[in-house]
Design goal:
The chain has about 290 residues and is α/β, with parallel strands linked by helices. The chain is built from nine helices and eleven strands. The radius of gyration is 20 Å and the shape is globular. About 20% of the residues have low confidence.
Length: about 290
């Protein structure tokens, strides 16, 4: 990584840095800014080697260049626009879950990527097909190490057909960059493939009808870890009614795949005091995908 690339990376994370006269060309010394205060000690950031085993840049130890206790200053604390899906912090009453074996997948489990996307596009299994502009299938690398699962599309996603494209999506991109990943290097999907009217929370029957599609995406991707963002994603994947605050901080399992739970980016924009907890969750997910098989 050359000097220009290093500066771009640090700037993308919102980190201020300074270079002492004695610094070599391959080392940058930075001071992380938290609020209006600078950290007492400079943190040395050394250029990381690129792993040739895959196309994903080597991330190194997630906490090497940033303190464990403070998140990067990802984005300005600005509320997301009103047309985005705004998840509640906690939901209860999910009797039917995507992880159960009771769903009739109607051959979905045997579809390839092209067949699966076509089936989603044509789906009319629930009332959401009457109000959607288009389905939101998912986007990203189809053999990604990390699968990010959100809750439901918002208005922007409904128009574009891609998950996380609004203000919350910008924050998600910055969160991924903080652990050394570009958006294109992960796969991003939602529990629902269609936007709920008025950005309301998903209903049980809607989750049930979409569940086989997500199950098949997971089976095709075979990720090394799943990052579940938000209450709907976490509770349905894990078949749990526990609050997100109780589910996070641990490593769960979904069909044998490690799952890390964290807050939805839209929630973090409204509650920036939770960013430090989300930063710990991201570090945990990064360590999982870096671990040896």
């Amino acid at each position: 990584m050359n000097e220009a690339e290093r500066r771009q990376y640090l700037q993308a994370m919102g980190i201020q840095y300074w270079i002492p006269r004695s610094a070599s060309e391959d080392t940058v010394v930075e001071r992380e800014t938290v609020g209006d205060h600078q950290a007492a000690e400079p943190v040395e950031v050394v250029a990381a080697p690129v792993s040739k085993a895959n196309s994903r840049p080597y991330m190194g130890t997630p906490d090497r260049s940033l303190p464990d206790d403070e998140p990067p200053p990802w984005l300005d604390e600005v509320p997301p626009p009103s047309n985005e899906y705004l998840p509640t912090e906690d939901l209860v009453g999910h009797a039917d879950q995507p992880g159960s074996d009771d769903f009739l997948d109607d051959g979905v489990s045997r579809l390839d990527w092209a067949g699966l996307e076509a089936r989603v596009t044509q789906c009319q299994a629930c009332e959401l097909h009457k109000t959607r502009i288009q389905t939101v299938f998912g986007v990203g690398k189809r053999d990604a190490d990390l699968l990010v699962i959100g809750e439901a599309p918002g208005a922007d996603e409904d128009r574009k057909g891609e998950p996380f494209v609004g203000r919350a999506g910008q924050l998600l991109n910055a969160m991924l960059k903080a652990i050394g990943l570009q958006r294109e290097q992960v796969y991003i999907a939602n529990i629902l493939k269609c936007r709920p009217p008025g950005n309301r929370d998903p209903r049980v029957e809607e989750v049930v009808h979409c569940a086989p599609f997500l199950q098949r995406q997971v089976g095709l991707i075979k990720p090394r870890a799943i990052l579940a963002v938000g209450a709907v994603a976490a509770k349905n994947l894990l078949q749990s009614d526990e609050a997100v605050g109780r589910l996070r901080g641990r490593v769960h399992q979904y069909n044998g795949i490690p799952v890390v739970v964290t807050y939805h980016p839209a929630y973090l924009l409204r509650s920036p005091e939770q960013k430090a907890k989300a930063w710990h969750d991201l570090q945990k997910a990064a360590k999982l995908i870096l671990a040896k098989p």
